[in-house]
Specification:
Number of strands: 0
Shape: elongated
Number of helices: 5
Oligomer: single chain
Largest sheet: none
Strand content: under 5%
Structural class: mainly alpha
Length: about 130
């Protein structure tokens, strides 16, 4: 969401750190990030040489800023979002496991099984002749 390239690395780091703490639906996160970037641009106009610590002093830590915003979202929506995210993560893990199992099976039957040595047992018998 960081569109402007005139942010310095510490400012970009602050924005990314804050975004990392926003555990909410995408539309809420997008709106908050747009508002936050406007506030940061205004802050930078007033303090052109601002660094990460200056941002923390003015806005608070990224976790505090994210928590302040998340308080405006209903707990039901956050709970629903978290449940869906967990379900989606479990689904992705299941698909990855299934793909791994299919890959191992294909590898075995296409590369290992055809290269097995075929052993043909031949019985040898010894006959003892008596004189």
């Amino acid at each position: 969401m960081i569109r402007d390239n005139h942010f310095t690395k510490p400012i970009i780091s602050y924005i990314r750190d804050t975004k990392r703490f926003l555990i909410c639906p995408r539309n809420y996160r997008r709106d908050f990030m747009a508002d936050m970037e406007k506030d940061i641009q205004q802050f930078l106009l007033e303090n052109s040489s601002a660094e990460y610590n200056d941002m923390v002093d003015y806005f608070g830590t990224p976790a505090e800023l994210a928590q302040l915003y998340l308080e405006n979202i209903s707990p039901e929506e956050r709970t629903t979002y978290t449940a869906r995210k967990k379900l989606f993560t479990k689904f992705k893990c299941s698909i990855l496991f299934l793909m791994f199992a299919v890959s191992v099976t294909c590898f075995y039957f296409n590369y290992i099984k055809p290269r097995e040595l075929k052993v043909i047992y031949i019985e040898e018998s010894l006959e003892v002749q008596e004189k």
